[in-house]
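Why does this matter for the project? Reviewers at the last site visit asked to see concrete outputs rather than summary tables. In response, this paragraph embeds two records directly. Each consists of the residue sequence and, immediately after it, the corresponding structure tokens. Nothing has been edited or filtered.
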Amino acid sequence: MEEAVIDRVQPSRQLTFGEAFDDRPRHRLFFGLWPDAHAAESLTRLMTQLRRDGIMLGKPVDPDRLHLTLHHLGDFVDQIPPSLLPTAQAAAATVRMTPFEVVFDRIGGTKGQFLLRSSDGSTALRQFRKTLGDALIKAGLRRWVEPAFTPHVTLSYDFGDAPEMTIEPIGWTVQEFILVESLLGKHQHLRQGHWPIQS
């Protein structure tokens, strides 16, 4: 989805006195998948209904920020390490796999997040993530490849525990994956590369 991320990098600026002594991460780099337009509309309707029914009490994630994280490449205070971006981009360019379907049919809240999950095992998704992970390892980025993976889309970040329940399935055909720099605390995603999924 073109509207999901911003295809530009903002110019650097001078830090204020307070920011200079703030060691909280400001930048996050990750590979992710974004729903297509139809799935995004379905997710928006779902979040509206969940709020209306009092099931999801937290603020919904902005529609253009709904995504599934594949590999989290780190959080950084000042800037992303200069060598990390081109290395990750080069690794992504080597990935080959045919487009595949993802389907989510469960919701529930845990650890401060309200999540959309899948009950079908997501075999193709897991295989794609492994393929991307293998490419990252081959490029020397093994430290950023986490073996554990629970596919999900976060619908809200300020919600406590809630029982899991099933919903009408929502899915889409994955046609591309995206490398994104998230400006933490600013609710902004900057696109750092995107690649079609092709054999």
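We now turn to the second protein, recorded in exactly the same manner.
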Amino acid sequence: MKKIFLFITALLMLASCGVQKAEDNGKIDVYASFYPVYDFARTIGGDDINLSAVVRSGAEPHGFEPTAADIAKISESDVFLYHGNGTDAWAEKIAETLPDSVMKVRLSDADTIAKGDAHTWLSLQNAEGELEAVCKALTEADENGENDAKYSDRLNDYTAKLDALKAEYDAANLTAVPLAAAHDAYRALCYETAMNYLPIDSVTGGEPSPAQLAEVVKSIKDKGAKYIFYDPIDGDKLAESAAREAGIETAELYAFEGDNENRDYETVMRFNLEQLKKSK
């Protein structure tokens, strides 16, 4: 860990020698580690911040490796937002090396449900807490007091939308409905909805052997799952294999690690709700 810390620090020092800060337009410069963090920041910040995502929106963030240029740009920003809990472990390492001039905000610290899971933003309750943390950070970092009310208004408006969506999830009554998934990305969602969760790769430890697949398929059948869900970013290979053995279909369910259509959180979670309703 110490070697990694020193390596990133060295990269930051070398890269910062050649970095030039963008022309000052009076807005704070905000960097977000990957897509859900970026989306929450743009929801609250709107056009009143200079916002950049380190990981492009359609990319998988787990194995991402930032360049020296990425680190240098982040070190020149006003705010660095990241999620934590392992999904963007590289961002947590970078945050330790940044100068005091950069406000570092770990959004998962605001979570109240399934704390410690890698994808806690899939709980609507957690998402509201993380949005509030973004609003607080932008308000503190921005010296333009005229923007404070804008950030607060955007938070209140979006929280109202999520409250309404939460009521729709509750009305769908998904308690004990089986959710079979290729990858273990939906634990926080199932914790909040009380669905009966079976992530295949969590049971098998990765790509299953034929014997492991047969065991998982039996469990899926016993639980009466109608679909095996997968995130398009991860691909459907494992889901297709298990679904074929189980005699059921696959379906998309977004973990919101990235989005090729650049959609916002509420839109994706509303799509997910319609997908989950089909499982009843």
